[in-house]
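Side project, low priority. Logging it here so it doesn't get lost.
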Amino acid sequence: MSEMNINDAVMTTRLDAVVNWARKNSLWPMPFGTACCAIEFMSVMASKYDMSRFGAEAMRFSPRQSDMMMVLGTVTNKMAPVIRTIYAQMAEPKWVLSVGVCASSGGMYRTYATLQGIDRVVPVDVYVPGCPPRPESMLYGVMKLQEKIEKESLSMRKDHIGRFYESLARQDAWQAEKGLTGQQTIREMLMDAAGRGEGAIF
């Protein structure tokens, strides 16, 4: 039997590294498009920019078949319960890209009807600036998300999502107890969080 160098036959690594390598190269995007950013996003999936190069070509419009939600456009307070429900239904692990200034901070709409940043109601992983952002910016956002996935631990992502589910259970309890609508409940939760000096409800 010929001698074999063990370095040529054995490779060691960490479980986190292998799993995250697979995760970052198989993102399934789900666009939550409400305004002009969604129109700009259409070109990102076309042949000129081709998100397939990043392993994210399997775009799905069902939350149960996607793990990367891209919020594209203005989100009103009435949409807040909807976006939380969609996020809850997505396959785990899951990530969120806030695309454009409207989704990230309310943009030019400093009104009572507009949610001043989706990060108040759902966890955001990457912010893509612009009004609307160029397709290159959206691709760069996906690349930054891949870098983040590569560095995080499995337990950290699990805890991250777990905090959201805790807030969702609290939302359901408040809604049943006080007889409020979903929008009213989230407003109450945001006011409660603000009273504690926090900007988010999860």
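Brief comment: The radius of gyration is 19 Å.
Revisit when time allows.
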